[in-house]
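> call design_seq(struct)
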C-alpha cells in the first residue's frame, strides 16, 4: 500500500475512510483472504504490506475493493512473492498487535560482474546466514520476489529496535558484498499471525 492521490495527514475528516480501511483489512485477516498485513510507522510513501494468496489479478481486485483505495487515500503495487506454505495462521483478534521490522532486499550498489562460482558462493552464504537468523528466532519471514524489479526479496526481523534489524540485515554476506541492500520499515501486524513465534 502506498500514499494515494488523495493522501492527507490524519484528521477527523479522513477518520471515516481510515476506519473503513482498517475494518476491511481486519476482515481480510479474519477470513484468511489476507495471510498477514499491517501498516508501516513513519511517513514514507510506502504505507504497509499485505500478503494474499491467488493470482496477481486476485490481489489487484482485493486491493481495488479497499475503501481506502476507492477514496484515493491509498494506492497499491502488486508483487509476486515466493514463500513457504504454513507460515501464517488466522488470528481471532487482529486488533492485538506486535511490531516487527519488515524489509525489501533491493539491488545493491555493486554492479561489478562476478563469476558463476563467486555468485554461487555468495548465494550459499546468503542462504546460510538467513537460515541461521531464522534458527535463533530473529528472521521470521523471508523469500524472493518474482519480477519485482529492484526489489528482489522480503525479510522480516522480530527484534526490539530498528538499529538491531539494520545490523542483522547488514551482516548478510550478499549485503556486505554490495549485491543487495535492505530497506526496512517498522511493521505493525496481528500478534500470532506468524506461526513461528520464538
Amino acid at each position: 500500500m502506498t500514499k494515494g492521490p488523495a493522501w492527507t495527514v490524519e484528521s477527523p475528516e479522513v477518520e471515516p475512510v481510515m476506519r473503513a480501511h482498517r475494518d476491511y483489512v481486519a476482515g481480510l485477516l479474519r477470513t484468511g483472504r489476507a495471510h498477514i498485513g499491517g501498516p508501516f510507522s513513519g511517513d514514507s510513501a510506502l504505507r504497509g504490506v499485505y500478503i494474499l494468496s491467488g493470482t496477481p489479478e486476485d490481489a489487484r481486485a482485493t486491493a481495488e475493493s479497499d475503501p481506502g483505495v476507492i477514496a484515493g487515500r491509498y494506492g497499491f503495487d502488486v508483487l509476486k512473492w515466493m514463500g513457504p506454505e504454513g507460515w501464517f495462521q488466522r488470528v481471532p483478534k487482529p486488533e492485538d498487535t506486535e511490531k516487527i521490522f519488515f524489509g525489501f532486499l533491493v539491488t545493491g550498489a555493486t554492479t561489478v560482474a562476478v563469476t558463476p562460482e563467486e555468485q554461487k558462493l555468495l548465494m550459499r552464504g546468503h542462504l546460510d546466514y538467513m537460515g541461521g537468523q531464522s534458527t535463533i528466532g530473529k528472521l521470521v519471514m523471508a523469500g524472493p520476489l518474482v519480477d519485482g524489479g529492484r526489489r528482489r526479496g522480503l525479510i522480516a526481523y522480530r527484534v526490539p529496535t530498528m538499529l538491531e534489524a539494520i545490523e542483522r540485515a547488514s551482516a548478510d554476506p550478499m549485503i556486505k558484498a554490495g549485491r543487495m541492500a535492505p530497506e526496512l520499515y517498522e511493521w505493525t501486524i496481528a500478534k500470532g499471525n506468524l506461526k513461528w513465534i520464538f
